[in-house]
Structures are given as structure tokens and as C-alpha cells.
Amino acid sequence: MLVIPAIDLLDGKAVRLLKGRREDVTVYSNDPVSLACDFEKLGVRTLHVVDLNAAFGDGNNRETIRRILE
């Protein structure tokens, strides 16, 4: 089994939505780039990133994703 961690981005933050509802959000990190670096330090080689703003048709998190890729 291959476990791939995920970071869901909403308004530049790493979040989780309860049952996919935007109004029911838990913020896990205000710095998703740092969170991605923490995963890398743990040896994670693959990371699943979801741009929830783009999925909701409300902007995007391209700059944050670009910084994660760096």
C-alpha cells in the first residue's frame, strides 16, 4: 500500500472541509509551504495538493502551489 499525504488549500491555508462543505472548515496550517517541507523532512516523496478555491470557482492558490514545488 502506498500512502500519499495531502494538503488541501483554501485561501492560502492548509485546511480540511467537513463533508466537503466550505462553510465547515478546519485550518491546519496558515503556512502550507512549511507543512509541505515538514512532509519532505519525513521522507515523503509524493504529495497530493488540492486547490479548493479553484474547485469552487473562486480564485486559485497557484502562488502557494508554486512555492510548494520549489
Mind explaining what this structure looks like?
With 70 residues, the chain is an alpha+beta fold. Helix content is 31%, strand content 27%. The chain contains three helices and four strands. The protein has helices spanning 32-41, 52-55, 62-69, and strands at residues 6-10, 13-17, 25-29, 48-51. Strands 3-2-1-4 form a four-stranded mixed sheet. α1 (32-41) runs parallel beside α3 (62-69). It starts with 5 loop residues before the first strand and ends with a helix. The mean pLDDT is 97.
User: Given the helix and strand composition, which structural class is it?
Assistant: alpha+beta
Percentage of residues in strands = 25-35%
On the 0 to 100 scale, the average pLDDT is: 97
Count of DSSP E strands?
A: 4
The CA-CA distance between the termini, in Å, is 27 Å
Number of helices: 3
Helix content: 25-40%
Instruction: Assign an overall shape.
Output: globular
Radius of gyration: 12 Å
Topology, element by element:
Elements: E1 6-10, E2 13-17, E3 25-29, H1 32-41, E4 48-51, H2 52-55, H3 62-69
Parallel strand pairs: 1-4
Antiparallel strand pairs: 1-2, 2-3
Helix pairs in contact: 1-3
Summary of the model, kept short:
The protein is globular and about 35 Å long.
List its salient traits.
single chain; 70 residues; alpha+beta; 4-stranded mixed sheet; 3 helices; 27% strand; globular
